[in-house]
Amino acid sequence: MSRKPRVEIEYCAPCRFLLRATWTSQELLTSFAEELGEVALVPGSGGIFEVRVDGRTIFSRAEVGRFPEIKELKQALRDVVAPAKELGHSERGGN
Question: How far is the C-alpha of 38 from the C-alpha of 4, rounded, in Å?
Fold first, then answer.
């Protein structure tokens, strides 16, 4: 049996991004309960908000200049862990 992917959400603790990180982790776990092995919250600093799958960055606030929309984050994660998975209303414009 192969290991399920690990998602890391590194957030800026001094910036108080923890609430956004926990909400994001809840959304990802709800949508990908069967596909993910774990979602880890990693305290950081310097304004960081990055989402990685098995070490591969799928979203970086520093690169994009904003926080991710949950729809785009779910689509990026889906493309890595379950390309055939339908995301329902998330793909049709809802959250």
Answer: 8
**What is the spatial distance between Cα 41 and Cα 49, in angstroms, rounded to a whole number?**
10
Domain total in the chain: 1
Query: What is the residue range of 54's domain?
Result: 6-88
pLDDT digits (tens, 9 = 90+) for 30-76: 999 999 999 999 999 999 999 999 999 999 999 999 999 999 999 99
Check which CATH number belongs to the domain holding 61 and give it: 3.40.30.10
Read off the pLDDT of residues 15-31 as tens digits, 9 standing for 90 and up. 999 999 999 999 999 99
Token duo for residue 20? 């956004």
Rounded to whole angstroms, the Cα distance separating 81 from 49 reads: 20
Cα 92 versus chain centre, distance: 19
82 occurs within a structural domain = yes
